[in-house]
């Protein structure tokens, strides 16, 4: 595989380059397809860690940290939503049930 494309993940076999659709990015080890490049990178690091090159491992670590930040952000927003709902219903109960 050539390294000419910066957006193409290293684990992709290069047969499918479409950015969307069920056959967007195909794993060169197991043949599974992913609709986005970062999903293929994460798949490679989780399912085929022994097959990764140095570049693919670096891509996986960077993508893993990026996803962890997204998950942490989602958890904080979900907790905030639950707190707002809880106190919203609590105040509605205090106002209308008395
Ligand atoms: Zn695979």
TrEMBL record:
According to the record, the residues making up region (Disordered) are 1-23
In what residue span(s) does the C2H2-type domain sit?
25-53
On whether Coiled coil is a keyword of this UniProt record, the answer is yes
In alphabetical order, the GO MF annotations are: DNA binding
Name the source's superkingdom. Answer: Archaea
Q: Which residues form a coiled coil?
A: 50-77
Species name for this entry? Haloprofundus marisrubri
Entry keyword annotation includes Signal = no
Please provide the record's keywords in A-Z order: Coiled coil, DNA-binding, Membrane, Transmembrane, Transmembrane helix
Q: Under what name is this protein listed?
A: DNA-binding protein
Q: Which ranges does the record mark as transmembrane?
A: 76-96
């Amino acid at each position: 595989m050539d390294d000419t494309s910066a957006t193409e993940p290293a684990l992709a076999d290069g047969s499918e380059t479409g950015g969307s659709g069920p056959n967007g990015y195909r794993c060169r080890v197991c043949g599974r397809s992913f609709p986005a490049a970062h999903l293929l990178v994460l798949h490679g690091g989780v399912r085929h860690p022994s097959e990764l090159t140095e570049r693919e491992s670096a891509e996986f670590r960077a993508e893993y940290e990026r996803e962890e930040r997204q998950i942490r952000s989602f958890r904080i927003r979900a907790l905030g939503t639950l707190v707002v709902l809880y106190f919203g219903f609590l105040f509605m109960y205090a106002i209308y049930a008395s």
